[in-house]
Design a protein that fits this description.
This protein is α+β, with helices and mostly antiparallel strands. It has a domain at 3-38 and 120-214 and 314-420. It is 54% helix and 12% strand. The chain has helices at residues 3-31, 34-41, 55-65, 116-126, 139-161, 178-192, 194-213, 235-245, 302-315, 320-351, 356-384, 397-420, and strands at 70-75, 84-89, 95-100, 107-112, 133-134, 137-138, 250-255, 263-269, 280-285, 291-295. The protein has an 8-stranded antiparallel β-sheet. It has a two-stranded antiparallel sheet with strand order 5-6. Helix 1 (3-31) packs across helix 5, helix 1 runs parallel beside helix 11 (356-384) and helix 5 (139-161) runs antiparallel to helix 7 (194-213). The radius of gyration is 24 Å and the shape is elongated. It starts with a helix and ends with a helix. The mean pLDDT is 91.
Amino acid sequence: MRRRTFFVWHSWIGLTAGLLLFVVCWSGTVAVFSQDIDWLIDERLRAPPAESVAWQEIAQNFEAAHPGWRLNSIQAPIAPGHAAELWLNDPDGVMHRGWADPGSGRLLATLSYFNVQRFLRSFHMSLFIGEWRVWEIPFGYWLVGLLAFVLAASLVTSLIFYKRFWRGFFKLQTHRGAKVFWSDLHKLTGLWGLWFVTLIAVTGIWYLAEWKITDEAPYPDPPAAEGSVTRTLSISRLVAAAERAYPRLEVRTVVTGQMDSGLFEVHGQDGGWFTRDRGARVWLDARDGSTLAIRRSGEMRPLHRWIDMADPLHFGNFAGLWSKVVWFVFGLGLSGLCLTGAYLQAKRQQRQGQAEWRKAVLTAYAFTVSVLLASVWFGYQEALTYGSAGGLPEVPTGVTVTIVLFVLTMLAPLGLWVRALR
């Protein structure tokens, strides 16, 4: 087929899917810093840096402050100056987050599980649309996953029709009018972001595919699957036993949710590249500290290794602040590509006097608006699951303000885009 054919395909992909793709890409871009945003807007999530985490003291202080609640896990701070994070359930089963000083174990706050990080992750993964299912996959995951295929198709078609694209890495003409400028900027951003677009498309496609092809890594059964466990070792002794069993493991999370059935679990890092903190694990018998199983990242099957690599590669959180900055900058570029590509194609259709462009634009915009309206309803329903007595969760004012600002920054470009094409 001629290059012109691929150019037409690329253009119409941008025109019809660019708006919704922008919504997903923009939410993912902001989600890169979601945990840091929560830390900035709430001083209760801050704590002095600590050389080690006082796992036992944190658990004891939590139990003293919230008798009858369930402690599921404790996570080490994601960076110096951050508090340790607890995942909790109240007596009604509602999820909460706790925050503690990692050095002293002092409990700093008990808050709703719903925060900026939860909002952005849920919205980016599924647009909150998780109730409707197709082939046992939530409809929202279908939408986001299929957009990853669209992103891949846009990438491939662009490389085919763009002659000698490797010559365009420094081409930006600023003196030949707005049309040429925005066209060059679109190409320039796309070329420098080739690696990033490829990475996001591949991991995005994987998130849809893993619903059907995930092969779970071995996971030991609780030592006392039937009946209750009357006595367990302290968390500090169990963590020490895990470190002796696997000296290379840097413990990042302790999982206490199954201690009543005799199973204690620690997650962490063991030097594996780009793996999330739960990649390497040690399982212990909580009653005597004996080792049940060890998962080393270097010994994992390729599929299991990929499962634990996809998230760090998609969100860029594998190297702290520096990798997040890189992912955020290229995420901005990708979000801009979605808007400028759709805009350039619509303007081109306007100039050529082709009537079908308007119908395509209106259809794409109507579909995007419909999806966002559905997201409002399903997002409200999800938020209710984190509240008490059937109400919305109580969240800091900063969380509400941040979510409103995010929504405005998402809707404003869409409105300006359509207004410019009237």
